[in-house]
Design brief:
With about 775 residues, this protein is an alpha/beta fold. The chain has four domains: about 120 residues, Rossmann fold; about 180 residues, 3-Layer(aba) Sandwich (Rossmann fold); about 160 residues, Heat Shock Protein 90, CATH 3.30.565; about 120 residues, Response regulator (Rossmann fold, 3-Layer(aba) Sandwich), CATH 3.40.50. It contains 23 helices and 26 strands. The strands form six sheets. Strands 2-1-3-4-5-11 form a six-stranded parallel β-sheet, sandwiched between helices. The protein has a five-stranded mixed β-sheet with strand order 15-17-18-20-19. The longest helix has about 60 residues. Bound molecules: adenosine-5'-diphosphate (ADP).
Length: about 775
């Protein structure tokens, strides 16, 4: 009997030689490197991995997976980003995988950077899954976005429990939590649920459970995730759900499949297993030679699923449930079946199938055609969904672009109006008194600086987007760094006439004396942005600038007693072009770029930024960045007196073709005692060098009419190696600075040139 069954199985196998899936390959080993953002044992990561590996193992003959788990749920991996990058690069070089798979946003972000930095990785296809933040991905990437349909969940609650008055959304402060928070905000912009929505999550585990256990009957919970509480304590999804189920008496809805069976009523659910399977289909096509460009990323599948027991517990009317909903946890009427009977029935069943196949003579080619047809139908459906999604995204981008252009036009035209208007007034009105002229010139200078700040902001945004924002670390004393910021804020308070606001500093003398290794210019930029916002949004009371070293983290905060920000906008203010008051006749100006730049800078430094605020009471913006202590505390020395000018009798060669720029430099250097020479092009520089005039410093413009400024730099350095050379250019990217230094320049200064800065730089070079 056993032999017969065996033979039948072998026959069955040969009857379906291609039954291993539409993408079966010839027998050779495919290596896949899987980089997980989180850890094994986390239900979400495990379900993605299971769907992905099971599906690929069944469609490929020989596949080997190599796993790396970054553990970003439990630790702040930004602190060891450079080490993780080099480790993954080394692993890649060792394994040489045909394909890389990433799960969730943290691993995705690192692979995006590595793809840009390491050409071999840039050429390897990357399939992603579980990624929350929808964005344009690099060319070698494709995959599945994990998009929770918040609106569908709200509608489900409304449908099943029409008397609900308030829904608590539980989200934590992890990467996924923050993305969910933003999605809730954007859903609320276009959808008005029939109940109040309140976010819950920026609290301790105890506060969460206390709040939920006191909630009344007409309220519900929509549980997203709570992997970390306010103190950074880690919890698994299951631990939290079990506690909520134990202590709260109200219905809980959830968004992921592994929440089912743990006390949730249900929800519009995402299954990690099915997302993994979808990603595996993409991976199989890529391994067959299909290019990533022809497989656009898509959203993963979602289904409405409800738990039978919970529906009963909350006495949900079954008539309110639509037909397409999947009900799980139904009690099944199980009959005790004897094991032997099961085997016999299975054998008979197989026999019936084989006989049926033989009888109907179903040809293999017909089967193959059917499979092909199914495959193309699937691709067609997928493409249709992609087109719809692209349309939706294009509309969204268009709206954002229009709002941005309207705002930019306002932000550029307002200062231009003053600059053009007052310049004309000064030029055409000979009867003005010297006081009036000086007042008008102050207005012109003020507005020029406003424009300059806007241009700098736009350049910073493009640096952040192209990963060109470089951090230049050098030793700096904390006390002097923050005193400078504090003094600048006092000047600004005075300028805007808000003298009724008091300014305070909070720090310990020990911290002030520390010398740390960091990028002081970028730190100064972030602190000033926060201070200027505090000044802008505060009418009276006080502003506090504080800093403290907490182990190897520098924590900085700016506290004010201003208008404050509603909880629902706390994350949105860090997004670009987002302002709490989005109306056209806004009371406060601004481009909406400042905080998003701060966020970009702080994150490039490996840190994080946030806000706590109460409307009408005030705000506390804070950030923390890792720094290395260069020198332990020595008493803070008094302010260094400005040194004597080193420029007296020094020969300065200005290489500049633009007559206005040359004139400006000459005027700035007037009175320093320096001997000024001017060359308008490369030819004139050669003449000066041939005349053997000894040059102390050359200020070289990089765009010249007859030659490149870089050639002029090397000519000067070759003829007079001791001469110092400064590139002076309007090219503001960090890569331009690197180019200048590579060409032999000692320094690089960006136009518009600030006189104080120029003199400080020249004195430094000559000392
Ligand atoms: P903007 O140039 O509009 O100030 P930001 O990115 O700096 O752009 O800030 C974004 C928004 O965040 C502001 O428009 C304002 O609504 C809010 N905001 C920032 N700082 C504060 C603060 N200290 N108090 C109240 N609201 C603030």
């Amino acid at each position: 009997m056993l032999r017969i069954v065996l033979l039948l199985f072998i026959a069955l196998f040969f009857a379906f030689p291609e039954s291993k899936g539409a993408y079966s390959l010839a027998k050779h080993e495919e290596k896949i490197l899987v980089v997980n953002s989180y850890h094994r044992g986390l239900s979400w990561t495990d379900s993605l991995n299971k769907g992905f590996t099971e599906s690929l193992e069944s469609s490929l003959n020989d596949v080997e997976f190599y796993f790396e788990n970054l553990d970003a749920k439990r630790q702040n991996i930004n602190l060891i980003l450079p080490e993780i990058k080099s480790y993954l690069a080394a692993r890649f070089a060792l394994i040489k995988p045909k394909l890389i798979a990433v799960t969730d946003d943290d691993a995705m972000r690192i692979l995006e950077i590595l793809s840009k930095e390491i050409p071999e990785i840039g050429r390897t296809p990357v399939v992603f899954m579980g990624v929350n933040e929808i964005r344009v991905v690099p060319e070698n990437f494709t995959g599945i976005f994990e998009v929770v349909d918040i609106r569908a969940n709200f509608e489900l609650i409304k449908q099943l429990m029409p008397s609900t008055q308030k829904v608590y959304c539980v989200i934590d402060n992890t990467t996924t939590g923050r993305v969910m928070g933003k999605r809730i905000d954007s859903t609320m912009l276009t959808y008005n649920p029939p109940f109040e929505v309140s976010l819950l999550g920026d609290c301790s585990y105890k506060e969460l459970i206390d709040t939920l256990s006191q909630i009344s009957n007409s309220e519900a919970v929509l549980f997203f995730l709570f992997n970390q509480d306010r103190f950074g304590r880690f919890f698994t999804y299951e631990e939290i759900l079990d506690s909520i189920y134990k202590y709260s008496k109200i219905p809980v809805f959830g968004t992921w499949s592994f929440y089912l069976g743990r006390g949730i009523v249900g929800g519009n659910i995402i299954s990690g297993y099915h997302h993994g399977k979808r990603a595996a289909q993409l991976a199989a096509m890529l391994l067959q030679g299909v290019s990533t460009q022809s497989l656009d990323p898509t959203e993963g599948p979602r289904k409405t699923m409800l738990d039978y027991k919970q529906l009963k517990r909350f006495k949900v009317d079954r008539n309110l449930i639509t037909k397409d909903v999947i009900i799980v946890n139904k009690p099944s009427a199980r009959l005790p079946i004897h094991k032997g009977a099961v085997i016999s029935i299975s054998v008979v069943f197989i026999l019936v199938i084989i006989v049926a196949i033989l009888l109907f003579g179903l040809s293999r080619s017909r089967l193959k055609n059917l499979r092909l047809q199914r495959y193309y139908n699937q691709i067609l459906e997928q493409k249709n969904a992609e087109v719809e999604e692209s349309l939706r995204r294009a509309e969204e981008a268009n709206e954002l672009k229009s709002a941005f252009l309207a705002n930019m036009s306002h932000e550029i035209r307002t200062p231009m109006n003053s600059i053009v208007g007052f310049s004309k007034l000064v030029r055409e009105n000979p009867g003005l008194t010297p006081e009036e002229i000086s007042g008008f010139l102050d207005i012109i200078s003020d507005n020029s600086q406003k424009l300059m700040r806007l241009i700098n902001d736009i350049i910073d945004i493009s640096k952040i987007d192209s990963h060109q924002l470089t951090i230049y670390k050098r030793p700096v004393q904390l006390g002097s760094l923050f005193s400078n910021c504090f003094r600048a804020a006092e000047v600004e308070l005075d300028r805007v006439g808000k003298n009724n606001i008091s300014m305070e500093m909070s720090f310990t003398p020990h911290d002030a004396a520390l010398e740390v290794l960091t990028d002081p210019d970028r730190l100064h930029q972030v602190v000033m942005n926060l201070l200027n916002n505090a000044i802008k949004f505060t009418q009276s009371g006080r502003i506090v600038l504080g800093y403290a070293m907490v182990q190897d983290l520098l924590r900085v905060w700016v506290e004010d007693t201003g208008i404050g920000i509603d909880q629902q906008h706390h994350d949105a203010v860090f997004e670009r072009f987002r302002q709490v008051d989005g109306s056209l006749n806004r009371e406060y100006g601004g481009s909406g770029l400042g905080l998003s730049i701060c966020k970009g800078i702080v994150e490039s430094m490996g840190g994080r930024i946030g806000v706590s605020s109460i409307p009408g009471k005030g705000s506390n913006f804070w950030f923390e960045v890792p720094v290395t202590i260069a020198k332990p505390g020595e008493p803070v020395t008094a302010q260094v007196k400005p040194t004597q000018s080193k420029l007296k009798n020094k020969v300065l060669l200005i290489v500049e073709d633009n007559q206005h720029s040359a004139l400006l430099l000459k005027e700035m250097l007037k009175g320093t005692g320096a001997v000024l020479l001017h060359a308008s092009n490369g030819m004139e520089v050669s003449t000066i060098l041939n005349d053997k005039v000894k040059i102390d410093v050359a200020l070289v413009d990089i765009y010249l009419p007859d030659t490149s400024g870089y050639d002029v730099v090397s000519k000067i350095k070759k003829a007079q190696p001791h001469a110092k050379v400064v590139a002076q250019t309007a090219n503001a990217m960090d890569s331009d600075r690197d180019k200048s230094l590579k060409a032999g320049c000692d320094e690089h200064i960006i136009k518009p040139i600030d006189r104080e800065r120029l003199l400080e730089l020249l004195n430094r070079l000559l000392s």
